[in-house]
Amino acid sequence: MENLIYAVISLYLLSTACYLAYLFFQKEILHRFGYYILMAGLLCHSISIITIYIRTGLMPVRNLSETLSLSAWAVAVVFIAVRHRFKLKILGIFAAPAALALMIAASQFPRHTGPTKEIFSSFWFIFHVVSVFIGDAAFALACGVGILYLLQELAIKHKARGFFFRRLPSLERLDSAGYACIVVGFTFLTAGLIGGFIYAKSVWGRFWSWDPKEVWSAVTWLVYAALLHERLAVGWRGRRAAILSIIGFAVLLFTFFGVNFFLKGHHGEFTRF
Asked: H helices of the chain, where?
């Protein structure tokens, strides 16, 4: 298993190198290498996750190492979907390094677990975790698209037809891709929260317990709900949407990391952060 993890890291590293080279040299072969190597890394990554599940019968989120690994897997999966839908090749310069960074971080934390808990084999727990992680990955890519949008907008505003202007897609295309990522992320986050409510009822006898993770998950949901509402009702697009997608992801990062490290609750106990 250790060798498989290092193989995943190596493949994500090679993919990152190819995508960065593609950013500078704009050679199609570099993008293809980066994409296929990322696919190979995702395949190995999927095998490692499935192996843990088969060996233990439990969802591999029992510690911070496994949680970060699943986050990296979700980023790679969502990127491939977005890449096929919008042909947004350049987004690989964000997705591949993100998956790599998460896997490197995962490898640095202990993989041992304490006593096995039944919660990790619950259907609603698995549904909750997978849905939320895919939603979070979509929001991460929306943040990446938002950053690319602001860079391209800045280049156009200053009439600087330089490095980024020649390499980034049109603002309309970036805006559409970012919106799609947020819609997907919001849909999966909503489904994941509903699954979490049902699971909480079965474990703690109540749908809501004001756990810090629950509260901040609700805050994250409200931020993205506000973004979608303003886009549909008021017509927020472009720069405003890009900035709010970045702010939303910052809130999500605090929900994912900050709450577990600085605030105590049920989630920190069960996932052993």
From this structure: 2-25, 28-56, 64-86, 92-108, 123-157, 163-167, 171-204, 212-233, 238-253, 259-262, 266-271
Same domain assignment for residues 41 and 174: no
Do residues 18 and 103 share a domain? yes
pLDDT tens over the chain, length 273 residues: 678 889 999 999 999 999 999 988 889 899 999 999 999 999 999 999 999 888 888 788 878 888 899 999 999 999 999 888 888 888 999 999 999 999 999 988 877 655 455 666 678 888 998 999 999 999 999 999 999 999 888 888 877 666 666 778 888 989 999 999 999 999 999 999 999 889 888 877 777 777 777 888 889 999 999 999 888 888 778 889 999 999 999 999 888 776 666 555 555 544 443
- If asked whether residues 104 and 238 sit together in one domain, one would say no
The Cβ of residue 54 has, within 10 Å, a number of other Cβ atoms equal to 8
Judged on CB neighbours under 10 Å (0-12, 13-18, 19+), 45 is buried
Shared-domain flag, residues 142 and 261 = yes
Contact yes or no for 60/49 (Cβ under 8 A)? yes
Last residue of one domain, picked from the residues 78, 109, 140:
109
What's the predicted TM-score (pTM) here? Answer: 0.86
